[in-house]
Design a protein that fits this description.
It is built from eleven helices and four strands; from the N terminus they run E-H-H-H-H-H-H-H-H-H-E-E-H-E-H. With about 325 residues, the protein is an alpha+beta fold. The chain has two domains: about 100 residues, Alpha-Beta Plaits (2-Layer Sandwich), CATH 3.30.70.1350; about 200 residues, Cation efflux protein transmembrane domain (Alpha-lytic protease prodomain-like, Up-down Bundle), CATH 1.20.1510.10.
Length: about 325
């Protein structure tokens, strides 16, 4: 019984869309986004402290966590560009997934602290200044909207960029809420509105962050990326000419932009040749966005037997 292990360099000759572009295309966006948000955090926190507004302080804390998240995502994007070596044969691509996960955890912890503070403040509401809140939050709408636009183009292809985009959109919406709260405070003088808006902010952000946490955790444990249907991949491979069956199929994320596949193809008529392998690799890339396929070929279905022996060594 013979088999061959084929590992192609086709992803260099025919790169998948956006497979290698995020770190370079969005480095400037990350730097600009961090600069804008850091400047706004200083303004918002200063005024929030001055007028004793928990809503402004809460939003400033969240914006600061976004700066940290953008920094993580940017650093991870740069790390994915490091070349593989003898100690890290896949390079540092998974850093982008770790950054997305850390970003989500950071946000959830920050919102938990905010929620506790808001509940304590709700028991003892304190007066604030409505106009200051409105003006500062309006600046926040402009800053967060501008930052979100920087990441709009890449949000469909990179979990890191998507996380940055979602955070900025959420921040813009939160700032709209703070403007409304300031207006209502001017109109009715409701001191309790400030901590209530803070709680709403926390809930909105937790709901928005949960998907990012779930997705990044799923990828960390080598889960199949959500945009890929494993059954469809198996059926597509099985329909390739000369393939009798597909065994031991695995699909996982190397990074937030690159997907890998390994599979054992049973081909009774023997080795299919380089043209078959090249066409299959290009097809996997075109149909599913899989840029790193590794295929084993054999005449007989021995992969399942190997799997069973591995599961029951005795």
């Amino acid at each position: 019984m013979s088999h061959a292990h084929h590992h192609h360099a086709h992803d260099h000759a025919h790169p998948a869309p956006h497979a290698h572009t995020a770190p370079t295309d969005f480095s400037r966006a990350f730097v600009l986004g961090m600069a804008l948000n850091l400047g706004f955090v200083a303004i918002e926190a200063g005024y929030g402290w001055h007028i004793n507004s928990l809503a402004l302080l809460a939003d400033a804390a969240h914006n600061l966590s976004d700066v940290a998240g953008l920094l993580l995502a940017w650093a991870a994007g740069l790390a994915t560009r490091l070349r593989p070596d003898a100690r890290h044969s896949y390079g540092w691509r998974r850093a982008s997934i770790l950054a997305a996960f850390a970003n989500a955890v950071l946000l959830l912890v920050a919102m938990g602290s905010l929620g506790l503070e808001a509940l304590q403040r709700l028991a003892h509401p304190e007066p604030t200044e409505g106009w200051t809140i409105i003006v500062v939050a309006a600046i926040g709408i402009a800053v967060n909207s501008a930052t979100a636009l920087l990441f709009m183009r890449g949000r469909e292809h990179d979990l890191n960029v998507r996380g940055a985009f979602l955070h900025m959109v959420a921040d813009a919406l939160v700032s709209v809420g703070v403007v409304v709260a300031g207006a209502l405070y001017l109109w009715q003088g409701w001191a309790w509105l400030d901590p209530v808006i803070s709680l709403v902010i926390a809930v909105v952000i937790v709901v928005g962050t949960w998907g990012l946490l779930r997705q990044s955790l799923h990828l960390l444990f080598d889960g199949v990326p959500e945009h890929i249907d494993l059954a469809q991949v198996q059926a597509w491979l099985a329909a390739r000419p000369g393939v009798a069956r597909v065994d031991d199929l695995h699909v996982w994320a190397l990074s937030t932009t690159q997907v890998a596949l390994t599979a054992h193809l049973v081909m009774p008529h023997g080795q299919p040749g380089d043209e078959f392998l090249r066409d299959t690799a290009q097809g996997l890339q075109h149909e599913f966005g899989i840029v790193h396929p590794t295929l084993q070929i054999s005449r007989e279905p021995w992969a399942q037997l190997c799997h069973e022996l591995g599961a029951h060594p005795h």
